[in-house]
Design a protein that fits this description.
The chain has helices spanning 7-10, 19-37, 40-66, 78-108, 121-133, 139-146, 166-174, 187-191, 198-231, 241-244. The chain is mainly α and 247 residues long. The longest helix is centred in the last third of the chain and has 34 residues, at 198-231. The model has no long low-confidence stretch (mean pLDDT 92).
């Protein structure tokens, strides 16, 4: 069992700063893959952990995500704040990739087609865009929910939706008008239902986890821009994180 990361899909043509994000994800993925490839005992232990997660432990991750908030940091150093948000992103990303291995294991043992009847975060975002285009919700309501996301969300140099002017965001919203989203249960409703397919549940949890991890990416971007203004750095994203943390 191997997980294909699809880095180009995750961050298209990453800047030097964003290669730090790529490096974190690759390192975590390789560490889990090593547990499968190292020796038989290591593989058995890791697969047992995956089975326990698939059976019940995924709910602990869901509960963590459901209550998740990015807390303000009372630290004066911008570089220290960046490091702490990077650590928080890494912690969530470890859980996301573990969840991906659990999904891959379930896929290997899948015996029939799956009725994917939950509304993912991505689909909810499209619905919000469509409502924004129809003026059924306000700009501020969209930003409150999805303002930390972006078109290339893991790229630190990519501006967040909260940085768009209302007219510019409306142009993006209008591009979604022909996308059809069928009525589905929310992840919370699905997990509270009597019949749960673990594969479907874990996909929904993965999308919620990515949604929350990206809140830290937004914080890191904001701090990098603030640092650039303070130090009068032109295009801070062209520097490595080692350079940035030593400015």
């Amino acid at each position: 069992m191997k997980i294909s990361l699809g880095i180009n899909e995750l961050i298209y043509n990453p800047t030097f700063a964003s290669k730090k994000i790529v490096g974190i994800i690759v390192t975590i993925n390789n560490s889990y893959q090593k547990k499968l490839d190292q020796n038989l005992l290591s593989k058995i232990i890791f697969l047992t952990q995956l089975k326990l997660y698939q059976k019940q432990n995924y709910l602990h991750f869901y509960n963590f995500l459901n209550d998740y908030q990015v807390l303000p940091l009372n630290i004066s150093s911008l570089q220290s704040q960046i490091s702490l948000h990077l650590n928080e992103f890494t912690a969530i990303q470890k859980k996301i990739i573990f969840n991906n291995f659990a999904l891959a294991d379930l896929a290997l043992n899948k015996k029939s087609s799956i009725n994917f009847d939950i509304l993912t975060i991505e689909e909810e975002k499209i619905i919000y865009f469509q409502k924004l285009a129809k003026k059924q919700i306000s700009y501020s309501r969209f930003i409150n929910k999805f303002g930390h996301l972006a078109l290339n969300p893991y790229e630190l140099a990519e501006k967040r939706f909260s940085e768009y002017k209302p007219t510019a965001l409306l142009k993006i919203a209008k591009l979604t008008q022909n996308i059809k989203i069928k009525p589905k249960k929310s992840l919370k409703q699905y997990l509270n239902s009597k019949s749960i397919n673990q594969f479907v549940a874990l996909v929904g949890i993965r999308e919620l986890a990515k949604f929350n991890a990206l809140k830290n990416i937004q914080q890191i971007r904001n701090l990098l821009l603030k640092l650039a203004r303070q130090k009068k750095i032109n295009n801070i994203f062209k520097y490595s994180f080692n350079q940035i943390l030593n400015f």
